[in-house]
Design a protein that fits this description.
nine-stranded mixed beta sheet, seven-stranded mixed beta sheet, 27% helix, Rossmann fold, 3 domains, alpha/beta, 21 strands, Ribosomal Protein S5, domain 2
Length: 466
């Protein structure tokens, strides 16, 4: 029998090739290709499955039209976590939680495990810490009385044997990069090991009906380490975000087969663990610099809820030939576009200035509705004219300098009015929407701008009130 041809797999991105090279063509990393022998399953897959005689039951076909019951969910009682997962944990689902080291992944999952331990058996498997270290964390969090079973192991065969015998309701694997299967010869943490271990754990979750929570490390680019196929295996992918210098933590759903995506949960890191934040807008604006130039409040939408956050900009003369552009919490390419539109359409000379933009509180904003707020902060800093602290701003900027309408404007205005804001700068309605906008009676004063020149005149005149 001929020997199966080896495959070389990149340990950075998971790309496979039949020949070794010093540099991966997919991700550009050097010295990351390692040989991986073809498994028995891959060799057997080369034969036609359709020609083989079926030994199991035939595939059952059902009509698309019909009724299916809503899957039951396990409610943890941590409202922000349940919000992100779509209302609770679905039995038989696999959830991948990624985040930077020390951001709080193990802390939040230990709190979730302790909250669900009263409704069924919960097993916490740690491959990075000893049992004594997990117990010390539980004592610090005030969870030492929870009926959570602990294990410190990395051998996947031993872990699966224990889980099959115990039949838990919830399993936490911390982390997937430390697990290894004795079927493969590669070291723990490699692409082949992470992929194989994830596949076996997902298969166990589907077979047993238990919910499996996998902890994954992230790379310097912010992506979960290992092949992207791991994200395709699981049902839900959550990212735990936040700056180490801030006490705020953002749990964000980027994939969810049982609920909405792009939903966020806001937590605050305290000495007793992560505490949920019911009103993140008030928390993000608690230490705002009122009356300072270059600062304004953006009314955004994160998932299904409106969130108000402060945007800070600083425009200063640059002594360098190439001015600096530093961005924290927003897209750098989007900032370059706004600067180009401001210079071309509004006549602001910003090419010779250093520009710094910061989203206060450690939140990352991705929606285009922040364009108008960023432009207002840049204009405010460049002209040294403060935006009144009671004004919120939102709107999308086009390359022609016009301001476009954004979705869920009513929700943004209601959230701003609830927090005591008195005015809002927003895009002017289109011709077909003029009558509809006139019928609505906003809870605060609105200033509608059609283009950047109107925004510039509004900030110069200082007619926004005190």
């Amino acid at each position: 029998m001929a020997r199966a041809a080896p495959t070389y797999v990149c340990q950075s991105c998971g790309a496979a090739t039949s020949k070794w090279a010093g540099r991966c063509d997919a991700c550009g990393e050097w010295n990351t290709l390692e040989e991986e022998a073809a498994s028995v399953g891959e060799a057997a897959h080369k034969t036609s499955l359709a020609s083989a005689k079926a030994k199991g039951a035939k595939l059952e076909l059902v009509a698309l039209k019909g009724e299916s019951a809503e899957p039951p969910r396990a409610i943890s009682g941590i409202a922000e976590f349940d919000r992100v997962t779509g209302g609770g944990l679905v039995p038989g689902s696999a959830i991948l939680v990624g985040g930077d080291p020390g951001i709080g992944k193990s802390t939040i999952l230990l709190q979730v495990a302790a909250a669900l331990a009263s409704d069924g058996e919960v097993i916490y498997v740690s491959g990075e810490e000893a049992i004594a270290q997990v117990r010390l964390r539980a004592t610090r969090l005030g969870l030492s009385g929870a009926e959570v079973e602990l294990a410190a192991a990395t051998n996947l065969r031993d872990i699966l044997s224990t889980l099959e015998a115990a039949g838990p309701r919830l399993v936490v694997i911390d982390s997937i990069q430390t697990m290894w299967s004795d079927v493969l010869e590669s070291a723990p943490g490699t692409v082949s090991q992470v992929r194989a271990c994830s596949q076996e754990l997902v298969r166990y979750a589907k077979r047993s009906g238990a919910t499996v929570l996998l902890v994954g490390h992230v790379t310097k680019e912010g992506q979960i380490a290992g092949p992207r196929v791991v994200e395709h295996m699981v049902d839900t992918v959550l990212y735990f975000e936040g700056e180490r210098g801030h006490q705020f933590r953002i749990l964000r759903a980027v994939k969810n087969r049982f609920g909405p995506t792009d939903e966020i949960g806001v937590f605050e890191m305290t000495g007793e663990g992560l505490s949920e934040v019911a009103n993140p807008s008030a928390l993000f604006l608690s230490s705002r610099d009122e009356g300072a130039s270059g600062s304004c409040v953006f009314a955004g939408i994160e998932g299904t809820r409106p969130v108000l956050v402060e945007l800070q900009a600083l425009v200063a003369p640059s002594p360098l030939g190439t001015p600096r552009r530093a961005v924290v919490g927003w897209d750098a390419g989007r900032l370059a576009m706004v600067l180009a539109v401001l210079e071309t359409r509004a006549g602001l000379s910003l090419a010779g200035n250093d520009v710094y933009l910061n989203v206060a509180g450690g939140l990352r904003v991705s929606e285009p509705a922040a364009d108008l707020a960023v432009a207002a902060a840049l204009i405010s800093s460049h002209l040294n004219v403060a935006v009144p602290p009671h004004v919120v701003i939102f709107g999308e900027i086009s390359l022609s300098g016009t301001i476009r309408r954004v979705a869920q404007s009513d929700a943004r205005l209601k959230e701003a009015a609830k927090l005591g804001f008195k005015a809002a700068i927003l895009p002017a309605p289109a011709k077909g929407e003029a009558k509809k906008a006139a019928k609505d009676e906003p809870a605060l004063t609105t200033y509608e701008v059609a283009d950047l020149n109107a925004l510039l005149e509004l900030l110069k005149e200082g007619s926004l009130g005190a």
